[in-house]
From TrEMBL:
Its EC number is 4.1.1.44. This is 4-carboxymuconolactone decarboxylase. Residues 35-117 form the Carboxymuconolactone decarboxylase-like domain. It comes from the Bacteria. Keywords: Lyase. One of its GO terms (molecular function) is 4-carboxymuconolactone decarboxylase activity.
Length: 128
């Protein structure tokens, strides 16, 4: 039986993150992590990212800011690439990080600029 939230989530997740990323994430799921992949696909992507109240660019900006604030730089790099994929420009991403410097802190923004520069220029993470 099909789950509409999962199907919506999978479609949006692929549109935002790209097929290659989603295919890798789903293919690497184990018995231990499969429920988490299902959870984020249904709820994060199928329920929250599909709500009509905000467009994808706004959601992307909010996501990058939250990741900067939480120091989740590995996820930030993925979401910078996603932001480019859905139409944010490098200048818009720069503005998100500059704005985050005020509310999240200069050291967080400094690290975020390094991660974003790598993602924008298409370089791979040297640490993994």
């Amino acid at each position: 039986m099909s789950d509409p939230a999962y199907e919506r989530g999978l479609r949006v997740r692929r549109e935002v993150l790209g097929d290659a990323h989603v295919d890798r994430a789903l293919a690497s799921a184990t018995d231990f992590t499969a429920d988490f992949q299902d959870f984020i696909t249904r709820y994060a992507w199928g329920e929250v990212w599909t709500r009509p109240g905000l467009d994808r660019k706004t959601r992307s900006c909010m996501t990058m800011t939250a990741l900067i604030a939480a120091g989740r730089l590995d996820e930030l790099e993925m979401h910078v690439r996603a932001a480019l994929r859905i139409g944010l420009t490098p200048d818009e991403i720069k503005e998100v990080i500059l704005h985050s410097a005020i509310y999240c802190g200069v050291p967080a923004a400094n690290s975020a600029f390094a991660v974003a520069q790598r993602a924008i220029s298409g370089q791979e993470d040297p640490g993994g």
